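Lay summary. Proteins are chains of building blocks that fold into shapes, and those shapes determine what they do. In this project we predict the shape from the chain. Here is one chain we studied, written as its sequence of building blocks.
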Amino acid sequence: MTDPRPTRRQKQKARTRERIFEAAREQFERFGFEGTTMRDVAAEAGVATGTIFTHFPDKGALLIATLLEDLAETDRGIMETLPSSPIRAQIIHMATAGFGYWCRRPELSATLLREMYFIGGPEAKRRRRETAQFVGFCSELLEDAVGRGELRSDVDCAAVAESLYSFYVGRLTRAAGDDAFHLQPMLTDLESFVDLLLAGIAPRSD
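And here is the predicted shape, written in a compact code that computers can read:
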């Protein structure tokens, strides 16, 4: 039977990746995407430049991997504290955690949002896949809300989930463009959109 515990080499590799991620956050936040080099990230992390390339083929892959690492941690926190109902509370809970992540390091967030949709390769495919999974999860929450009678039975939950995610990303993009990553105004805008959307798909009163 295979021992499920990580080996010393696996632990060392994980620690190295975490040092690289933290160095990448610092470099991207201070110098932006164009101003950051793999050599500088390696120096910040205390590893050889070749070690960086062992883990990530290029700077774009490193940027996306850093983002996905952070968002995975945020998603775990969301899942651990997600209310069981109603759907509005669930949506606002997810948005508060999501916006909170982007607001904590505004300079890094601006760099990530400017670059992440224009980077190709395997990491970009992973980003698209994880985005689709998250939107799918939101759709499942909406379907559960239909089952509880909070929403009409004819609601296209997948389309509603896409609309919610599009508004969320659009509000983040606006924050990056305005250099204004402030949690409460962003959350207030999203709450208004959610209330308008839910009012349109709530059960009709006869």
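What the prediction tells us: The chain has a mean pLDDT of 91.
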